[in-house]
Amino acid sequence: MSSGSSNVENFSPQTIRQVQKELFDLASKPPEGIKVYINEEDITDIQAVIEGPAGTPYAEGKFRVRLVLGKDFPSSPPKGYFVTKIFHPNVARNGEICVNTLKKDWKSDLGLKHILLTIKCLLIVPNPESALNEEAGKLLLEQYDDYCERARMITEIHARPPKPVKEGLEEDPQTSSTSCKADGPTSAKKHAGDKSKIMDKKSKILKEKKRTLKRL
């Protein structure tokens, strides 16, 4: 990838100003479920995190996406990529996104917000007719439950931040300090052992899911 300064120099001052305005508007008033990250060194390096919509196999996932502006932007659309791995009919294995808004339906005045919202909508309503991932498109049409399970598994492994381990470790706030003092090192050792068992169990489940995916 070219350096930030050389990439910016590919664009007219007018285009740079327009992109800056759109990005700062998105940062100050973000659409629901979308967070934009501004690269101060290269304003044309556009990255955002899209939250997986509720009621979809992508729910609770956080997906990083990237828009790549060509030198003839906005006359031609940017290319869109999922940086976070995802199982979706309209996303190729290299992360490239197939969206009509980014291709034949593009209009120079649509703007970056429209593109990001369109990508989010694609998580809710995939389009198997323009599939870049044929396997995902075929499952969506013929075995919807299997498609959902596969998409959900990929989301859980790659798009969900790890949750803090709390199971079985909650303490009564009124007695926690006294019990720690009374039990001393023995209590601390027991809690460490409980936490270790839970982490081992979660690790085994995750490894098993990854092995299942490799066999698919």
From TrEMBL:
InterPro entries: Ub_conjugating_enzyme (IPR050113), UBC (IPR000608), UBQ-conjugating_AS (IPR023313), UBQ-conjugating_enzyme/RWD (IPR016135). Pathway: Protein modification; protein ubiquitination. Gene3D superfamilies: Ubiquitin Conjugating Enzyme. One of its GO terms (biological process) is cell division. Residues 159-204 are annotated as: Disordered. Transmembrane segments: none annotated. It catalyses: S-ubiquitinyl-[E1 ubiquitin-activating enzyme]-L-cysteine + [E2 ubiquitin-conjugating enzyme]-L-cysteine = [E1 ubiquitin-activating enzyme]-L-cysteine + S-ubiquitinyl-[E2 ubiquitin-conjugating enzyme]-L-cysteine. Residues 14-160 form the UBC core domain. Residues 159-168, 191-204 have a biased composition (Basic and acidic residues). Belongs to the ubiquitin-conjugating enzyme family. The active site is at C98 (glycyl thioester intermediate). Keywords: ATP-binding, Cell cycle, Cell division, Nucleotide-binding, Transferase, Ubl conjugation pathway. It is an enzyme of class 2 (transferase). One of its GO terms (molecular function) is ubiquitin conjugating enzyme activity. This is Ubiquitin-conjugating enzyme E2 S. Its EC number is 2.3.2.23. It comes from Oedothorax gibbosus.
